[in-house]
Amino acid sequence: MEPNFNFWDNMAKRYPRFNDISMSKDVNHIINWCQNRNVSFEGASILDIGAGTGTIAIPLAQKGAHVTAMDISEGMLAALNEDAKEQGVSLQMHTHQSDWDSFPLSQQYDIVIASMTPAISDLQKIDKMLGATKGLGIYVGWGKYRINKLVEALVKAHIIEEEEDCASAGCIKAAQFIDILDERNIPYESSFFETSWSETYSFEEAKEYAYDQLKRKEIVPNEAIVESILSENLDGDKVQVTTEAEKGIILWRVA
Ligand SMILES: C[S@@+](CC[C@H](N)C(=O)[O-])C[C@H]1O[C@@H](n2cnc3c(N)ncnc32)[C@H](O)[C@@H]1O
């Protein structure tokens, strides 16, 4: 289920930029894995669906690709445009703000990419993604697990059974994407890797983070509960939020 509030614009204030150390490690892993399979990004036209702050779009533009970065969030694309300008790749970057459903697909791209985005949340959206490439496609999704102990504690304290893990919220997991390629008889290569990242927040920032995470799960935050859980997780005057996860990369080529 998609959040009906400006979750992603709020998230844009905290979402890692392309040069964040943990994020770059994952992105370099993904790009190297593709390059080791003879994928060349130089000069390629690329559509990045749910591009966020440009964590993948900017490194690909730096490799000489022409990237169309589409995203539903104005805040995410503002960060992307700022960094693209600073990195001198604005001319290779075209941004488009819309929901993937309503994105006007007027051409096929050499490469289509979607990474960790709920833009790809059902069969219709996957089929639109499959049709967007004349060359190859790359999907990056959650693997078997995603552990964020702070969010788990917040949800548990609100005494609500967590029906879906926090990784889902509309995202198609890598294994589900593979099932769909199998059903369509589309050959692919895939690889899974483990990753982790930490964010350090002030108490007020952590409160905003906690509220966003709960509202995303359609849980009405209780201020006293949130403050109590955050207090238990205080280290000095900061709250550190660590996530450990498995991610899967899937690469397919148009025959
Ligand atoms: C977790 S971020 C991933 C960003 C980037 N692809 C990455 O791997 O770091 C998810 C992104 O998907 C975008 N998004 C969510 N729903 C979307 C939709 N329906 N259409 C387009 N973008 C969407 C959000 O705004 C956000 O920027």
List the helices and strands and how they pair.
Blueprint: H1 7-12, H2 21-35, E1 45-49, H3 57-62, E2 66-71, H4 74-86, E3 93-97, E4 109-115, H5 123-131, E5 133-148, H6 149-157, H7 174-183, E6 188-202, H8 203-216, H9 223-232, E7 234-235, E8 238-253
Parallel strand pairs: 1-2, 1-4, 2-3, 4-5
Antiparallel strand pairs: 5-8, 6-8, 7-8
Helix pairs in contact: 6-9, 8-9
Bound molecules: S-adenosylmethionine.
Please name the defining characteristics of this protein.
globular, 9 helices, alpha/beta, binds S-adenosylmethionine
Describe the structure.
It is globular, with a radius of gyration of 18 Å. It is an alpha/beta fold and 255 residues long. It has one domain: 3-Layer(aba) Sandwich (Rossmann fold). Strands 1, 2, 3, 4, 5, 6, 7 and 8 form an 8-stranded mixed beta sheet that branches. The relative contact order is 0.16. It contains 9 helices and 8 strands. Helix 6 runs antiparallel to helix 9 and helix 8 crosses helix 9. S-adenosylmethionine (SAM) binds next to loops. InterPro entries: CFA/CMAS (IPR050723), Methyltransf_25 (IPR041698), SAM-dependent_MTases_sf (IPR029063). Keywords: Methyltransferase, Transferase.
* SS summary, helix count: 9
The CATH topology is what? Rossmann fold
Tally of distinct domains: 1
CATH C-level name: Alpha Beta
H/E topology pattern: HHEHEHEEHEHHEHHEE
Shape, per Cα inertia axes: globular
Distance between the termini: 33 Å
Helicity, as a percent range: 25-40%
The bound ligands are: S-adenosylmethionine
| CATH homology-level superfamily | Vaccinia Virus protein VP39
Main β-sheet description: 8 strands, mixed
Strand fraction: 25-35%
Protein name: Methyltransferase
Domain Methyltransferase: 46-121
Keywords: Methyltransferase, Transferase
GO molecular function, one term: methyltransferase activity
